[in-house]
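A reminder before we start the practical. When you read a complex entry, don't treat the lines as separate problems. The point of joint prediction is that each chain is placed relative to the others, so the output describes one connected object in space. Small molecules and nucleic acid strands, if listed, are placed in the same frame. In the example below there are two entries. Take a minute to note the order of the lines before looking further.
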Amino acid sequence: MPVSKETLDSIALSEKEYELIVERLGREPNEVELGMFGALWSEHCGYKHSKPLLRQLPSRARHVLVRPGEENAGAIDIGDGLAIVVKIESHNHPSAIEPFQGAATGIGGIVRDIFTMGARPIALMNSLRFGPLSSPRNRYLFQGVVGGIAAYGNCLGIPNVGGEIFFAECYSDNPLVNALCLGIAPKEHLIKSRAYGEGNLLMLVGADTGRDGLHGASGLASRTFERESELRSAVQVGNPFLEKLLIEACLELATTDWIVGMQDLGAAGLTSACVESAARGGGGIDVDVLKVPRREKGMTPYEVMLSESQERMLILVKKGYEAQVKALFDRWELRSDVIGHITADGIARVREGERIVAELPVDVLTSPPMYRRRVKAPPWLDELQVINLSHIPDLSPRKANKVLLTLLSSPNIASKHSVYRQYDHQVGNNTVVLPGNDAAVLRIKGTKKAISLTTDGNARYCYLNPYLGGIIGVVEAARNLVCTGARPLAITDCLNFGNPEKDDIYYQMKECIAGMAHACRELKIPVISGNVSLYNETRGKAIYPTPVVGMVGLIDDVTRHCTAGFKREGDLVYLLGLTDVVNSSIGGSEYLQVVHNLTRGSPHIDLKLEKRVQRCCLEAITKGVLSSAHDCSEGGLAVALAESCLLGGIGFVGFDLEFEGRLDAALFGEAQSRIVVSVSPDRAWLLEKLADRWEIGVLRLGVVSGKRLVIKGLLDLPLNMLGKAWWNGLEDFFK
Amino acid sequence: MTVTPPTGLESKRHHLVISRAQMRFGIIVFPGTWSDRDCYYAIKDVLGQDAKYVWHKETDLSEYDCIVLPGGFSYGDYLRPGAIARFSPVMTSVAEFASRGKPVIGICNGFQILCESGLLPGALLRNEHLEYRCQWTYLRVEDQSTPFTSLLQKGQVLKIPISHYDGRYYADKDTVEELEANRQIVFRYATPNGRVTAASNPNGSLNNIAGITNKQKNVLGMMPHPERACEPLLGSSDGNLIWESIVASIKGNA
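Here is the predicted structure of the whole assembly.
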């Protein structure tokens, strides 16, 4: 073999894969060609380990306009002639190396995916994972990532409406930065990224091409590392101002009939943009690298084709309209150059002037080998799921106050307001429910409707039980939407795992996805887009399996939306759903982790019950029965009550409650299928009737009242003390 | 279209006003501006006034009754917020428009541009805590004699959000004293019940300054975003009082 193993390693191709390339081409690839294969056959672009598993996820429904893989993002029909475009994407590896720019360019990339389709981006969200903040390194990563998201997103004028942040030791070397963007467009203005029509032109717009970001897809995102310093050159630097100009110019272009499509340049730069749009269009492309404007002299064709310089777009221009397109970009002071044309021969041809430097069949480039393996559950998993409750002393009633304060100040539960106040979450004049609630709500101008948006995913559950964790990620996201009064419509998912070539990791991935697929089918929510981030491990230590679910739902009448905070003195408070105390529900809980320093047990879910609970809550909200609704999740019932008090600025007094079972499970257990709601006394009978009809539990907990949280004999704390723990819990690490 | 004046309003002055019931706002768009669309929405869609975008290379402002410099990151805020935008061709016309006593309102980045171009004194520095801040603030109205506060009362509190990195108002001692003496400080950050406190100051502005005018009081710069407080659904509609004040005062001057 004429290519060294080191070369193949640097682009993350195996020797077998190299042999396959030679066989399919009938010859050895040259250096440029091999680089293109490395990029397109990488896990990041080619999904060779994940695609067979992803096929399980349902993606069809009447309202789905664009399914996964068809375009840069998925799209759904929300009526009134409008389409919602949404996608989530990881920027984990770059953020681990250079947190500020890594996170910033993550925003840039996901935003391009949305406006590439002709949709105006109207919301951002982030799902972040870090190691514990007690370590200075983790604080540095955290502040860098948040700063980068703020700097880039705020400059674009797209509201960042929330997301989630979770801390665990396994993320110390591998923080996760998943960015979601949602856009809106008139249905008929959705733009495709299909390069078709022989003779049509390829126009490169935006930033000049530099040496930054080489091997981002093949190197950074598709293998594991020992040292990070060697990879700094693979991280790009963002220019949000340029991106803002691109957004406005491209959206203006989307309303003309001068183009056949648009495609952003992301992972694997020009290579992936050209080849993927050619593959979608069923033709070929012919590109001259000499026509690509460069940031520096002496760049080779290899570097030009694989650069991941940010803020670039490929415009597929109808022949004869290039002058108009250029004039449009000129007005926005953006550079645009014709760099090639579309052909009919199915070949991706790259030239440097007259000399052809790469000539590869598009279908070979875009059909990497697919790996599907049979793996067994790792033996350590069974042991981990066993939890011997008799060895864990139950909570003494005298300690309940203290434990509640401890949990409220735990960074996983504490308010994230010190983060989201750094993000502009109101620009656009659509944000009805601000960050800090179960889900964000954005109204759709010109209609009575609103969309609700959330991200969710409990990685600790997935670690303890990948299948159930996968299910719970989906149902919790749906429950969050339901608590705002929204009907879940679609999912975009970001699947973060370790090295899939290892059996244990592959097993986690397979089970998580199977669980998600099961929940999606049961709740009838299609997955319309997503992204996979593998090889999240350092020195052989992998992250928890972390599938993140981004979910969008629809509220038909925005005036009927609901929030989590208690509203009125005298309202009755109910627990809706699973009202029995489940002792094993301390398994995998934040309580068990924080108080007993244990990560053990297994979550549990009854999907049929869950479905009824969600239907009941949604019906109660749309009929105007409820004053508030809040998902009962991390930290259990006591934390949910405290949060509803703090968000509403009003207290709670419990009735005489007799808990049958362990006290810690009653207050802090994380049993699923539970929602804390409040209702005015004259409507309480309606709620009870609804719960009865849906055959779910409905337990009267107490009444909204005063400025304290009181459950007789157990909890009695003033709101300002609860607030101090919850509002400052995260911020205190930075004082 | 003919507009019949309502009965009882026969004076020539009222007739003139009603024959052109809508005021026309010119909203300047620089590369990187993003509040342009929100201002347009609040002025046109919520309040029913006329509004048009004005690209920063245009120079003819003769058709407008009021000029709006909206928020955003003109030229990416690279170098210094507003430092590049002040050289845009439109800014010469804005200065000329202001010199004729017509109302100009700069919001957020617009305030920064007005300071950079010398139409307002002082400067907006990086927030004291060095972080971006997006949050609701409460503004105490300090002066009702401006076109921007003509429908408001001194001491009234408005709930309007901020969103900026560089909103800490700063000027030398003499300038601040002059601002105070001339009653050019229009809005101060305050508590919901109107007390001006250190805790209610979100960015470290001198004297809790949130908005100031020029001496003639026809040029206003403010960091908070009135265009975002345009509907109860979004949490407040107090920002409309500022737009409505402008409309009322233009009508009053017609």
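Discuss with your neighbour: Chain A touches chain B at residues 150-151, 154-157, 239-242, 244-245, 332-333, 420-432, 434, 443, 445, 558-559 (CB under 8 Å). What might explain this?
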